[in-house]
Amino acid sequence: MTTAASSPAYRRLSVEQRRVQLIDAALSLFAHRSPKDVSLDDVAEAAGVSRPLVYRYFPGGKVQLYEAALGSAADELKLCFAEPQHGPLTERLASALDRYLAFVDTHDAGFSALLQGGSVVETSRTSATVDGVRRAAAEQVLLHLGMTDSAGPRLRMMVRTWISAVEAASLIWLDEGKQPPLPELRAWLVDHFMALLIATATTDPRTAAGTREALALESADGAAGALARRVVPVLADAAHLL
Q1: What is the pLDDT of residues 106-133, one digit of tens each?
Q2: How many beta carbons lie within 10 A of that of residue 94, not counting itself?
Q3: First to last CA, the chain
Q4: pLDDT of residue 130
């Protein structure tokens, strides 16, 4: 009776629903363990299905399942920097970073494997997926600057450098026991972006124009104003360089 009652559960899910269920189960495991330490038996157990069923949906085994799970995580990460195009730039970046860092926090030790492709099942497709996340994030940042079409190579390099810094800081944050607190990390990353942007604007006229427009939307009591007040005393101490 138990077998007869449980078997329809497999038929209640469509092909796509079952596939999503298995991907979600894999992601829940990858969130706290490297993919090399997760077996298909682990995924089957987490999903409450049999190992042959996992193979039915992912005949390529763990590599195919990992690629699908990475693609799902990538889709979520790409949305992190999608923010309405209004308000101060620093507030938009802070909101985007809150979502990004929440993903890092939720996926914990699996973040490196999911985003960096740092596992034994890394393939050319996973590398392309990860690079796609970085490029999508960079394009969103340029959109916030209103410079998706006018950005020159220096600004594009600066934005992609910052995206890489966000990744690196996230990994270091995990390695340091999630310290400093997330709000402090987010604020520091926003400051980092503004500092890089202003430095780039000093040698790139197109970036300078976009930076002036962005700063015009900032308020004295906002993140940019607070950064300016902290920077002025430092520059005053270096007046002999002027």
Answers
A1: 877 667 666 655 444 556 677 788 888 8
A2: 18
A3: 86
A4: 82
CB atoms within 10 A of CB 218: 19
Residue-level pLDDT at 121: 54
Ordered by where they begin, the domains of the chain are 71-241 (1.10.357.10)
* Its pTM surpasses 0.85: no
